[in-house]
Design brief:
Its main location: cytoplasm. Keywords: Carbohydrate metabolism, Cytoplasm, Lyase, Schiff base. It comes from Equus przewalskii. The chain is of the alpha/beta class. The chain has nine helices and eight strands. The model has no long low-confidence stretch (mean pLDDT 92).
Length: 230
């Protein structure tokens, strides 16, 4: 079973994808971005090509190059680089997952496909399982963001028995305002040591009370030690 060097927790920066004025990716500043996060913000875990990074608006080749640059520039500086590899095409998502493993990423995350949507939990789990299998050595995270995907399957339902289907499953990025659903995710999986990463910055304090172990977001915190005591 895949296991990260240490549990993904605390603040995880949802990185933007820097662009030039001509709409091309500005790879040259990613090294500076890494140094800013580490030295100025004290953040050493990042989430690449997600919603903030506009990953689904990039081509597959662009997503691969962005992932490569973050992993390369973050080596020996960042603790964990998690790459979002979700896509409408299963094959493209598998390709991105395999690529993440090849370049040395520390984990992958996947959203639900959102055009021809999964209509129940089993269909969604089967999609996630196929993607996870493409990178069997990497920790796998489900990225729950129903406001954008339109997939209204509750995260608590998805997590029920998920590790039996996806042995590499390590946690949940929960980007929804349904705090009852989030609380049930935490309460029903306390013994499993999952990472419960909250993704709605405005509700983070409430999520902490409910048991969030981390946050993936874009707010700036000058001192994260006041939020995480362990």
């Amino acid at each position: 079973m895949a296991s990260p060097k240490k549990k993904l927790q605390g603040l995880v920066a949802a990185t933007i994808t820097p662009m030039t004025e001509h709409g091309e990716i500005n790879f040259s500043v990613i090294g500076q971005y890494v140094d800013y996060l580490v030295k100025e913000q004290g953040v050493k875990n990042i989430f690449v090509n997600g919603t903030t990074g506009e990953g689904l608006s990039l081509s597959i080749s662009e997503r691969r190059r962005v992932a490569e640059e973050w992993v390369t520039k973050g080596r020996n500086k960042l603790d964990q680089v998690v790459i979002h590899v979700g896509a409408l095409s299963l094959k493209e998502s598998q390709e991105l997952a395999q690529h993440a493993a090849e370049i040395g990423a520390d984990g992958i995350a996947v959203i639900a496909p959102f055009f021809l949507k999964p209509w129940n939990k089993d269909v969604l789990i089967n999609f996630l399982k196929e993607v996870a299998a493409a990178a069997p050595a990497l920790p796998f995270y489900y990225y729950h963001i129903p406001a954008l995907t339109g997939v209204k399957i509750r995260a608590e339902e998805v997590l029920d028995g998920i590790q039996e289907k996806i042995p590499t499953f390590q946690g949940l990025k929960f980007s929804d305002t349904d705090l009852l659903d989030f609380a049930q995710c935490v309460d029903q999986n306390r013994q499993r040591q999952f990472a419960f990463l909250f993704g709605v910055d405005e509700q983070l304090l409430s999520a902490l009370v409910m048991g969030a172990t981390g946050a993936v977001g874009s707010f700036v915190f000058r001192d994260s030690s006041t939020l995480w005591s362990n």
